[in-house]
Amino acid sequence: MVQKDAYEALEHKIMALRENSRTGDERKTLDEVFDRDTILGIYKLMTDGYIDTIQYPVSTGKEGNVFAAADAEGKLYALKVYRTSNATFNRIAKYIEGDKRFKGLSGSRRKIIYAWASKEFRNLQRLEDVGVKVPSPIRYYRNMLVMQYIGSKAGPAPLLRQVTLDDPEEVYSTLIEYMRLAYQEAKLVHADLSEYNILYYRKRPVIIDVGQAVLTDHVNAKDFLLRDIENVNRFFRGLEVSILSRDEALRTITEASK
Known about the structure:
The chain has about 260 residues and is an alpha+beta fold. It has helices at about 1-20, 25-35, 35-45, 85-95, 110-130, 170-185, 220-235, 245-255, and strands spanning about 55-60, 65-70, 75-80, 135-140, 145-150, 150, 155, 190, 200, 205, 215. A hairpin with a 5-residue loop joins strand 2 and strand 3 (about 75-80).
């Protein structure tokens, strides 16, 4: 009876999130996110003690939605839920192809997206282990990922594009160093890095959305890295930072120090 009540409470909370959505598109997105299998998965995370309640939506991304969730003591976590729609699958296909970690993986669209959630979990682990500031990964299950909440109880940390930086040169240097650590130590390329995938918290950049990050031996790794460099340079050029040229940045990121 207790379990049934808890599951029904979860359904009511999700229904409330949907009803509080401001637009029809938001409600449609939440309908795509919270199918029955996903609700059952969230319930599993709750019964295992990782989260206790879903608090509020944080962001809507290209592949999934992020929600603030709290454990039984009220500590906040970020809950990322990947949508299992065709549109999501089609977008991630180019990052799966050529990634040896997906070699031999076959089955349903849902199974592929479950593997994608596990990939982001492992990418976060690899980046955190080498000193890149990312949300600490806590647990993944099916198409869901529980990770560190970046922000305060007043709200999530803003995106880099939303803040006025006190020292943009220092932030630029930090991001180049993060890209170097990712490439040389974690053997990863973010592959979608921009001011839209970087949070700014306690005067430091925090890299997010690393599900599409590829290994450095991926066939398209260099092209993805060059795109990341160009995106970061474009943003900081607009802040009148003295940036590295694309080739200088590429050498700094990929070549070992002498």
